[in-house]
Specification:
heterodimer, A: alpha/beta, 10 strands, 23% strand, B: 243 residues, mainly alpha
Chain lengths: 258, 243
Amino acid sequence: MSHDGNASVSRAENDETRSGSDEAAVAVAVAHLRVVRGDNDVLRDLTFDIAPGGVTGVLGPSGSGKTTLLRCILGIQIVTAGAVTVLGHPAGSRPLRSRVGYASQAASVYDDLSVVENLRYFAAALGAPASDVERVVTEVDLGSCAHRLAGRLSGGQRSRVSLAAAMLGTPQLLVLDEPTVGLDPVLREDLWALFHRLADRGTTLLVSSHVMDEAERCDSLLLLREGQVLAHESPAALKQGTGETSMDAAFLHLVRAA
Amino acid sequence: MTPRAFLATARRVLAQLMHDPRTVALMIVVPSVLMVLLRYVFDSTTVFNHLAPALLGFFPFLMMFLITSITMLRERTSGTLERLLTTPMAKIDLLAGYAIAFSVFAIVQVVVATLVSLWLGLSIAGNIGWLLVVAGLNAILGVALGLLASAFAHTEFQALQFMPVVVLPQLLLCGLFHPRDQMATVLRWLSDVMPLSYAVDALQRVTNSASLDGGYWRDTVVVLCCAIVGLCLAAATLRRRTR
């Protein structure tokens, strides 16, 4: 994990305002997590830790349990067994609600409000400073449509409103469920640059995707298949370990070996 | 409860309404138009004086029930509710924000309908302010029951079907169509447990007598308590964790 000078300073300041026990050695700790929905085993005994900082990609085919896993980390999923600890607290507990940002897969915004009205409201709900609205609008590059109704925006713009809302209040952990789905390549490039900028400032990001070529852009990967962790390592280590050159091939290699 | 989140919710709900001018216009104009109809269908000021005050209380209840159950259902299906429940905002900030925003709106609606009714010949013996208090409480009651009903609806069609279930029996049994003390015992009991009966009773007291008696206050407190109980039950249906 590397920081530039500014990021280290701001983290040091944060540390002073927080109690010592809050600064956990792992950002997310998942132990023996099981989720059963109906007669479907969605997550089967998952155990892994995610280190603070960096972008961790949660990858796997549709139906592999990515969204359910992210919902467990947010503490909004009823779990059958196991424990999820986030920044040293049980997932979903009160101290985490202003420290974990979340953008769901379908943009959760009010279509009958403008971009700025949406963000002002979420800022109030999060207890984030009102000045944050302008910052996140700039960061997701929505300045040109800040006063348009969210319902009139394109799909990509709408999902960026949701992403901007997740960034309000500068959370320590950002959980983003398929934030780049359906976006054009230029916009995807921009968003990945943004994710790495946030990571450089010390934010831990969890980004899910079912597109394997996005794996290359992550610092660390969590490959899911049928509710189980197939691999948890860096993209380079994954390719080296499997002897494949593309992420798609590496994933297939792992599936066949499992 | 945090004032900022609560006020922000009220402001947000009002802003959503303001972006929908057609709904606003309909909500403000329709009760007044119905009052005009009522006045000339019976063509009698006596009948109008009997029915109008109760309807001035019924409109905000009905409108707020409908608009709240649909809005809240949308909030559930669009994911915004789930998103809000991951923030530090208290559930009661959300619900109270809804209740206040819609009652402010209901007061506007009732003021317009009352002015039109007065122009049509309605005579109110008591203070109009006390009539508005009951109308405002009725709006909160409508919001509370609408929030509660939305928890049991999965689609907007289902939400609309709760209107005849929750609202119409109360209208039939509130004493507007038939005096409550002349109803069959079972119906009388049912009428006794329905909050709208107390609201209509309070409204008739304001209309018929210049001085407020204890009955008005008892009725008002009953409506207020039902609204608070409804909001609390609605809060209990908001779950942070779901399947």
